[in-house]
Each structure stands twice: as C-alpha cells, then as structure tokens.
Amino acid sequence: MRYIGFCGKGEGGAFVEGGALGLQGRLPVNTHGGLLSQSHMAGMNHVVELVRQLRGQAGRAQVPDAEVGLVTGYGDLGDGTIAIMARG
Fold it and tell me: What residue stretches are annotated with the Thiolase C-terminal domain (predicted)?
C-alpha cells in the first residue's frame, strides 16, 4: 500500500490488522479473492470486479455504496499500471 499512499511508512501492519482491508473496512481490497481465487488473465478479472462493484452487481462481495475503485497490476520488475474508475 505504500506505493499508493493509503498509509504512512511503518503504519501498514496496524492498517491491515485493524481491518481496513476487509469487505466492511474503509479500504476493501481483493473483494473477488485476488489472484489466489481468480485466473490471471492479464489482470482483466480485476477490472471486471471493479465494474461489478461500481454497478452494485458483486453479490455477497459487494462493497456498500461503492463509488470509486482502483485496480493496479504491478509486475515482478516494478512495472505496472493503475486504473481508477468512478460510478457515473
């Protein structure tokens, strides 16, 4: 999370332990299970999940009142992309 700035240096452990990344937390992460539960497919399943969240179609994994979402795909060499989408 430090690359994106959701918490300060040295604050990541407490941020995660406090439940911030859970479905009902202030920053739900991997609502579809991440790459452990999804096929890789070049990260497109992350984009599909983001769209489902913004449309309110994520079923049991739905983040209440989702308005903005962020998808990132950092590679092994530090290269990557980021997409930020909002409900329109």
Answer: 4-78
